[in-house]
Amino acid sequence: MTPVLPAGSGVAVVRRPNRVRAAWLIALVAVTVGLCVLSVAVGSRTVPWDEIVAALGGAQENLDQAAVGQRIPRTALALLVGAALGVAGGVMQGVTRNPLADPGILGVNMGASLAIVIGIAWFGLASASGYIWVAILGAGIAAAFVYAVGSLGRGGATPLKLALAGAATSAALVSFVTAIYLPRGDIADNVRSWLIGGVGGATWPSVSLVVPFLLVGFAVSLLSARSLNTLALGDDLAAGLGERVAVARAVAALGAVLLCGAATAIAGPIAFVGLLVPHACRLLVGVDHRWLLPFSAVAGAALVVASDVVGRVVARPAEIDVGIITALVGGPFFVAIVRRQKVKSL
Protein backbone atom coordinates (compact mmCIF):
# COMPACT_ATOMS: atom_id res chain seq x y z
CA MET A 1 0.00 0.00 0.00
CA THR A 2 1.38 3.37 -1.05
CA PRO A 3 0.78 6.55 0.97
CA VAL A 4 -0.59 9.43 -1.07
CA LEU A 5 -1.20 13.05 -0.13
CA PRO A 6 -4.57 14.51 -1.16
CA ALA A 7 -4.51 18.07 -2.41
CA GLY A 8 -4.72 20.61 0.38
CA SER A 9 -4.46 18.16 3.26
CA GLY A 10 -1.61 17.71 5.61
CA VAL A 11 -2.24 14.05 6.22
CA ALA A 12 -1.04 11.11 4.18
CA VAL A 13 -3.84 8.73 3.19
CA VAL A 14 -3.21 5.09 2.45
CA ARG A 15 -4.37 3.83 -0.93
CA ARG A 16 -5.79 0.38 -0.24
CA PRO A 17 -5.90 -2.50 -2.73
CA ASN A 18 -9.31 -3.21 -4.24
CA ARG A 19 -9.45 -6.66 -2.68
CA VAL A 20 -9.13 -5.10 0.79
CA ARG A 21 -11.85 -2.59 -0.03
CA ALA A 22 -14.11 -5.38 -1.31
CA ALA A 23 -13.55 -7.36 1.88
CA TRP A 24 -14.47 -4.35 4.02
CA LEU A 25 -17.57 -3.76 1.90
CA ILE A 26 -18.73 -7.38 2.32
CA ALA A 27 -18.17 -7.13 6.08
CA LEU A 28 -20.10 -3.86 6.25
CA VAL A 29 -23.02 -5.32 4.28
CA ALA A 30 -23.08 -8.30 6.65
CA VAL A 31 -23.20 -5.97 9.67
CA THR A 32 -26.03 -4.01 8.07
CA VAL A 33 -28.03 -7.19 7.42
CA GLY A 34 -27.55 -8.21 11.04
CA LEU A 35 -28.77 -4.81 12.21
CA CYS A 36 -31.84 -5.17 10.00
CA VAL A 37 -32.65 -8.48 11.66
CA LEU A 38 -32.29 -6.82 15.07
CA SER A 39 -34.49 -3.94 13.95
CA VAL A 40 -37.28 -6.35 13.04
CA ALA A 41 -36.91 -8.48 16.18
CA VAL A 42 -36.19 -5.92 18.90
CA GLY A 43 -38.21 -2.98 20.14
CA SER A 44 -40.61 -2.15 22.94
CA ARG A 45 -41.42 -5.86 22.75
CA THR A 46 -39.07 -8.61 21.64
CA VAL A 47 -40.60 -10.88 19.02
CA PRO A 48 -39.78 -14.63 18.88
CA TRP A 49 -38.21 -15.95 15.67
CA ASP A 50 -41.19 -18.14 14.77
CA GLU A 51 -43.47 -15.10 14.91
CA ILE A 52 -41.03 -13.13 12.73
CA VAL A 53 -41.04 -15.89 10.13
CA ALA A 54 -44.83 -16.04 10.20
CA ALA A 55 -45.10 -12.25 9.83
CA LEU A 56 -42.68 -12.29 6.91
CA GLY A 57 -45.04 -14.77 5.28
CA GLY A 58 -47.89 -12.26 5.58
CA ALA A 59 -49.51 -13.40 8.82
CA GLN A 60 -51.02 -10.69 11.08
CA GLU A 61 -52.79 -12.83 13.68
CA ASN A 62 -51.39 -11.45 16.96
CA LEU A 63 -49.54 -8.49 18.46
CA ASP A 64 -46.08 -9.94 17.77
CA GLN A 65 -46.80 -10.42 14.09
CA ALA A 66 -48.41 -6.98 13.86
CA ALA A 67 -45.30 -5.45 15.46
CA VAL A 68 -43.09 -7.11 12.85
CA GLY A 69 -45.39 -5.84 10.10
CA GLN A 70 -44.83 -2.29 11.36
CA ARG A 71 -41.09 -2.67 11.85
CA ILE A 72 -40.31 -3.91 8.32
CA PRO A 73 -41.21 -0.65 6.51
CA ARG A 74 -39.59 1.27 9.37
CA THR A 75 -36.35 -0.64 8.83
CA ALA A 76 -36.55 -0.09 5.08
CA LEU A 77 -37.00 3.65 5.60
CA ALA A 78 -34.06 3.77 8.02
CA LEU A 79 -31.90 2.03 5.41
CA LEU A 80 -32.90 4.46 2.67
CA VAL A 81 -32.54 7.60 4.79
CA GLY A 82 -29.19 6.52 6.21
CA ALA A 83 -27.81 5.65 2.78
CA ALA A 84 -29.07 8.95 1.34
CA LEU A 85 -27.52 11.07 4.10
CA GLY A 86 -24.25 9.15 4.01
CA VAL A 87 -23.85 9.62 0.26
CA ALA A 88 -24.98 13.26 0.43
CA GLY A 89 -22.36 13.96 3.06
CA GLY A 90 -19.62 12.30 1.02
CA VAL A 91 -20.61 14.28 -2.08
CA MET A 92 -20.73 17.58 -0.22
CA GLN A 93 -17.33 16.98 1.31
CA GLY A 94 -16.01 16.26 -2.17
CA VAL A 95 -17.67 19.29 -3.78
CA THR A 96 -16.41 21.71 -1.11
CA ARG A 97 -13.14 19.86 -0.40
CA ASN A 98 -14.03 20.31 3.27
CA PRO A 99 -14.25 17.34 5.67
CA LEU A 100 -16.55 19.38 7.92
CA ALA A 101 -19.20 19.59 5.22
CA ASP A 102 -22.45 17.70 5.65
CA PRO A 103 -26.12 18.46 4.95
CA GLY A 104 -26.69 19.70 8.49
CA ILE A 105 -23.62 21.89 8.88
CA LEU A 106 -24.02 23.48 5.42
CA GLY A 107 -27.65 24.37 6.13
CA VAL A 108 -29.16 22.10 3.49
CA ASN A 109 -31.24 20.11 6.00
CA MET A 110 -32.62 23.26 7.56
CA GLY A 111 -33.33 24.77 4.14
CA ALA A 112 -35.52 21.77 3.38
CA SER A 113 -37.10 22.02 6.83
CA LEU A 114 -37.87 25.73 6.49
CA ALA A 115 -39.50 25.16 3.11
CA ILE A 116 -41.75 22.43 4.54
CA VAL A 117 -42.69 24.47 7.62
CA ILE A 118 -43.57 27.47 5.42
CA GLY A 119 -45.65 25.18 3.23
CA ILE A 120 -47.51 23.74 6.22
CA ALA A 121 -48.06 27.04 8.03
CA TRP A 122 -48.91 29.36 5.15
CA PHE A 123 -49.98 27.22 2.20
CA GLY A 124 -51.74 24.25 3.77
CA LEU A 125 -49.14 21.73 2.57
CA ALA A 126 -50.38 18.28 3.57
CA SER A 127 -49.51 15.64 0.95
CA ALA A 128 -46.41 13.46 1.32
CA SER A 129 -45.41 13.99 -2.31
CA GLY A 130 -45.75 17.75 -1.79
CA TYR A 131 -43.41 17.51 1.20
CA ILE A 132 -40.76 15.91 -0.98
CA TRP A 133 -40.91 18.46 -3.80
CA VAL A 134 -40.95 21.41 -1.42
CA ALA A 135 -38.07 19.97 0.64
CA ILE A 136 -35.93 19.47 -2.46
CA LEU A 137 -36.63 23.05 -3.54
CA GLY A 138 -35.72 24.39 -0.10
CA ALA A 139 -32.56 22.27 0.07
CA GLY A 140 -31.48 23.52 -3.36
CA ILE A 141 -32.05 27.17 -2.48
CA ALA A 142 -30.13 26.80 0.79
CA ALA A 143 -27.21 25.07 -0.95
CA ALA A 144 -27.04 27.77 -3.63
CA PHE A 145 -27.20 30.53 -1.02
CA VAL A 146 -24.42 29.03 1.09
CA TYR A 147 -22.20 28.57 -1.96
CA ALA A 148 -22.88 32.15 -3.10
CA VAL A 149 -22.03 33.59 0.31
CA GLY A 150 -18.95 31.38 0.62
CA SER A 151 -17.76 32.58 -2.79
CA LEU A 152 -17.66 36.23 -1.79
CA GLY A 153 -14.33 37.93 -1.20
CA ARG A 154 -10.77 37.00 -2.07
CA GLY A 155 -10.08 33.41 -3.03
CA GLY A 156 -13.63 32.45 -3.97
CA ALA A 157 -15.42 29.50 -2.36
CA THR A 158 -12.73 28.21 -0.02
CA PRO A 159 -13.54 25.22 2.23
CA LEU A 160 -13.26 27.34 5.38
CA LYS A 161 -15.57 30.09 4.09
CA LEU A 162 -18.14 27.52 2.96
CA ALA A 163 -18.16 25.92 6.40
CA LEU A 164 -18.60 29.28 8.13
CA ALA A 165 -21.32 30.38 5.67
CA GLY A 166 -23.12 27.07 6.15
CA ALA A 167 -22.99 27.24 9.94
CA ALA A 168 -24.30 30.81 9.98
CA THR A 169 -27.04 30.01 7.46
CA SER A 170 -28.11 26.92 9.39
CA ALA A 171 -28.39 28.91 12.62
CA ALA A 172 -30.46 31.58 10.89
CA LEU A 173 -32.78 29.02 9.30
CA VAL A 174 -33.36 27.33 12.66
CA SER A 175 -34.49 30.69 14.04
CA PHE A 176 -36.83 31.24 11.09
CA VAL A 177 -38.36 27.79 11.51
CA THR A 178 -38.95 28.38 15.22
CA ALA A 179 -40.45 31.81 14.62
CA ILE A 180 -42.93 30.36 12.12
CA TYR A 181 -44.25 27.35 14.00
CA LEU A 182 -44.21 28.50 17.66
CA PRO A 183 -47.16 30.93 17.33
CA ARG A 184 -49.15 28.26 15.48
CA GLY A 185 -50.58 26.01 18.16
CA ASP A 186 -52.41 23.96 15.56
CA ILE A 187 -49.18 22.71 13.96
CA ALA A 188 -46.53 23.28 16.64
CA ASP A 189 -46.59 19.79 18.19
CA ASN A 190 -46.41 17.95 14.87
CA VAL A 191 -43.70 20.21 13.46
CA ARG A 192 -41.63 20.00 16.66
CA SER A 193 -41.81 16.20 16.61
CA TRP A 194 -40.86 16.06 12.91
CA LEU A 195 -37.91 18.43 13.42
CA ILE A 196 -36.28 15.98 15.83
CA GLY A 197 -35.82 13.48 13.00
CA GLY A 198 -36.96 9.87 13.09
CA VAL A 199 -38.33 6.92 11.13
CA GLY A 200 -41.22 5.94 13.38
CA GLY A 201 -44.60 5.55 11.73
CA ALA A 202 -43.14 4.54 8.38
CA THR A 203 -45.49 2.80 5.97
CA TRP A 204 -44.94 1.17 2.59
CA PRO A 205 -46.85 3.94 0.76
CA SER A 206 -44.60 6.62 2.30
CA VAL A 207 -41.48 4.60 1.50
CA SER A 208 -42.58 4.05 -2.10
CA LEU A 209 -43.12 7.79 -2.58
CA VAL A 210 -39.55 8.69 -1.70
CA VAL A 211 -37.80 5.84 -3.54
CA PRO A 212 -37.82 7.40 -7.06
CA PHE A 213 -36.25 10.63 -5.80
CA LEU A 214 -33.58 8.73 -3.89
CA LEU A 215 -32.78 6.50 -6.86
CA VAL A 216 -32.20 9.54 -9.07
CA GLY A 217 -30.08 11.15 -6.36
CA PHE A 218 -27.99 8.00 -5.89
CA ALA A 219 -27.47 7.67 -9.65
CA VAL A 220 -26.36 11.29 -10.09
CA SER A 221 -24.06 11.12 -7.07
CA LEU A 222 -22.39 7.85 -8.06
CA LEU A 223 -21.91 9.01 -11.65
CA SER A 224 -20.16 12.10 -10.25
CA ALA A 225 -17.57 10.04 -8.34
CA ARG A 226 -14.85 10.33 -10.97
CA SER A 227 -15.39 14.09 -11.25
CA LEU A 228 -15.14 14.43 -7.48
CA ASN A 229 -11.78 12.64 -7.59
CA THR A 230 -10.57 15.19 -10.12
CA LEU A 231 -11.90 18.13 -8.10
CA ALA A 232 -9.94 16.88 -5.09
CA LEU A 233 -6.75 17.79 -6.98
CA GLY A 234 -7.73 21.47 -6.93
CA ASP A 235 -9.68 23.61 -9.37
CA ASP A 236 -6.72 24.67 -11.49
CA LEU A 237 -5.37 21.17 -11.96
CA ALA A 238 -8.85 19.75 -12.53
CA ALA A 239 -9.47 22.33 -15.25
CA GLY A 240 -6.09 21.54 -16.77
CA LEU A 241 -7.09 17.88 -16.96
CA GLY A 242 -10.18 18.83 -18.96
CA GLU A 243 -12.74 18.82 -16.16
CA ARG A 244 -15.46 21.46 -16.38
CA VAL A 245 -15.22 22.44 -12.74
CA ALA A 246 -18.43 24.46 -12.40
CA VAL A 247 -20.51 21.83 -14.21
CA ALA A 248 -18.99 18.97 -12.20
CA ARG A 249 -19.73 20.76 -8.92
CA ALA A 250 -23.28 21.63 -9.96
CA VAL A 251 -24.14 18.08 -11.04
CA ALA A 252 -22.69 16.49 -7.92
CA ALA A 253 -24.42 19.05 -5.71
CA LEU A 254 -27.72 18.30 -7.48
CA GLY A 255 -27.41 14.64 -6.51
CA ALA A 256 -26.70 15.57 -2.89
CA VAL A 257 -29.64 18.02 -2.79
CA LEU A 258 -32.04 15.38 -4.13
CA LEU A 259 -30.89 12.88 -1.52
CA CYS A 260 -30.92 15.32 1.34
CA GLY A 261 -34.24 16.94 0.44
CA ALA A 262 -36.08 13.65 -0.02
CA ALA A 263 -34.62 12.14 3.17
CA THR A 264 -35.48 15.25 5.20
CA ALA A 265 -39.04 15.34 3.86
CA ILE A 266 -39.76 11.77 4.92
CA ALA A 267 -37.77 11.54 8.17
CA GLY A 268 -37.02 15.08 9.34
CA PRO A 269 -33.59 16.75 9.62
CA ILE A 270 -31.38 13.97 11.01
CA ALA A 271 -27.99 15.48 11.83
CA PHE A 272 -24.37 14.27 11.73
CA VAL A 273 -24.89 11.13 9.60
CA GLY A 274 -23.42 12.90 6.57
CA LEU A 275 -20.45 14.07 8.63
CA LEU A 276 -19.57 10.97 10.59
CA VAL A 277 -20.09 8.28 7.95
CA PRO A 278 -17.77 9.56 5.14
CA HIS A 279 -15.01 10.16 7.70
CA ALA A 280 -15.22 6.61 9.02
CA CYS A 281 -15.38 5.17 5.50
CA ARG A 282 -12.39 7.25 4.37
CA LEU A 283 -10.30 5.48 7.01
CA LEU A 284 -11.29 2.12 5.49
CA VAL A 285 -11.11 2.77 1.74
CA GLY A 286 -9.21 6.02 1.26
CA VAL A 287 -10.32 9.08 -0.70
CA ASP A 288 -11.39 7.49 -4.00
CA HIS A 289 -15.05 8.50 -4.33
CA ARG A 290 -15.77 5.53 -6.58
CA TRP A 291 -15.40 3.43 -3.43
CA LEU A 292 -16.14 6.05 -0.79
CA LEU A 293 -19.71 6.79 -1.91
CA PRO A 294 -20.93 3.15 -1.99
CA PHE A 295 -19.28 2.59 1.40
CA SER A 296 -20.95 5.73 2.74
CA ALA A 297 -24.33 4.45 1.54
CA VAL A 298 -23.97 1.12 3.37
CA ALA A 299 -22.41 2.64 6.49
CA GLY A 300 -25.03 5.40 6.64
CA ALA A 301 -27.80 2.82 6.40
CA ALA A 302 -26.18 0.80 9.18
CA LEU A 303 -25.80 3.85 11.42
CA VAL A 304 -29.43 4.96 11.13
CA VAL A 305 -30.78 1.43 11.62
CA ALA A 306 -28.54 0.96 14.67
CA SER A 307 -29.60 4.33 16.08
CA ASP A 308 -33.25 3.41 15.61
CA VAL A 309 -32.76 0.10 17.43
CA VAL A 310 -30.92 1.80 20.30
CA GLY A 311 -33.64 4.43 20.57
CA ARG A 312 -36.30 1.74 20.89
CA VAL A 313 -34.39 -0.23 23.53
CA VAL A 314 -32.88 2.29 25.96
CA ALA A 315 -36.17 3.89 27.04
CA ARG A 316 -38.67 1.01 26.85
CA PRO A 317 -41.61 1.20 26.42
CA ALA A 318 -41.06 4.75 25.13
CA GLU A 319 -38.79 5.55 22.18
CA ILE A 320 -35.98 8.04 21.52
CA ASP A 321 -35.95 9.37 17.97
CA VAL A 322 -33.06 8.65 15.64
CA GLY A 323 -32.13 12.33 15.40
CA ILE A 324 -31.37 12.46 19.13
CA ILE A 325 -29.19 9.33 19.04
CA THR A 326 -27.17 10.52 16.02
CA ALA A 327 -26.68 13.92 17.69
CA LEU A 328 -25.35 12.26 20.84
CA VAL A 329 -22.88 10.28 18.74
CA GLY A 330 -22.05 12.94 16.18
CA GLY A 331 -21.61 15.95 18.47
CA PRO A 332 -18.44 14.72 20.21
CA PHE A 333 -17.17 13.40 16.87
CA PHE A 334 -17.57 16.86 15.33
CA VAL A 335 -15.68 18.49 18.22
CA ALA A 336 -12.87 15.94 17.84
CA ILE A 337 -12.51 16.73 14.14
CA VAL A 338 -12.35 20.47 14.77
CA ARG A 339 -9.71 20.04 17.49
CA ARG A 340 -7.41 18.15 15.14
CA GLN A 341 -6.66 21.46 13.34
CA LYS A 342 -6.19 19.69 10.00
CA VAL A 343 -9.59 20.13 8.44
CA LYS A 344 -9.25 23.05 6.00
CA SER A 345 -9.58 20.83 2.94
CA LEU A 346 -9.51 17.24 1.77
SSE topology sketch:
Elements: E1 2-4, E2 13-15, H1 18-41, H2 49-56, H3 63-96, H4 108-123, H5 128-150, H6 159-181, H7 188-196, H8 204-223, H9 225-231, H10 235-240, H11 245-267, H12 273-285, H13 289-313, H14 322-339
Antiparallel strand pairs: 1-2
Q: Concise description?
A:
This protein is mainly alpha-helical. The chain contains 14 helices and two strands; from the N terminus they run E-E-H-H-H-H-H-H-H-H-H-H-H-H-H-H.
Derived from helix and strand composition plus strand pairing, the structural class reads mainly alpha
Shape: globular
Give the ordered list of helices and strands. Answer: EEHHHHHHHHHHHHHH
Radius of gyration: 20 Å
Main sheet makeup = 2 strands, antiparallel
Label the CATH architecture: Orthogonal Bundle
> Taking strands numbered 1, 2, ... along the chain, how are they ordered across the largest sheet?
1-2
Number of domains: 1
CATH superfamily: ABC transporter involved in vitamin B12 uptake, BtuC
> Whole-Å distance between the termini?
20 Å
Which regions contain 5 or more consecutive residues with pLDDT less than 50? 1-13
DSSP strand count: 2
Number of helices: 14
Helix share of residues? over 70%
In percent terms, what proportion of residues is strand?
under 5%
CATH top level class name:
Mainly Alpha
Within the CATH hierarchy, at the fold level, what is the topology? ABC transporter involved in vitamin B12 uptake, BtuC
Mean pLDDT across every amino acid position: 86
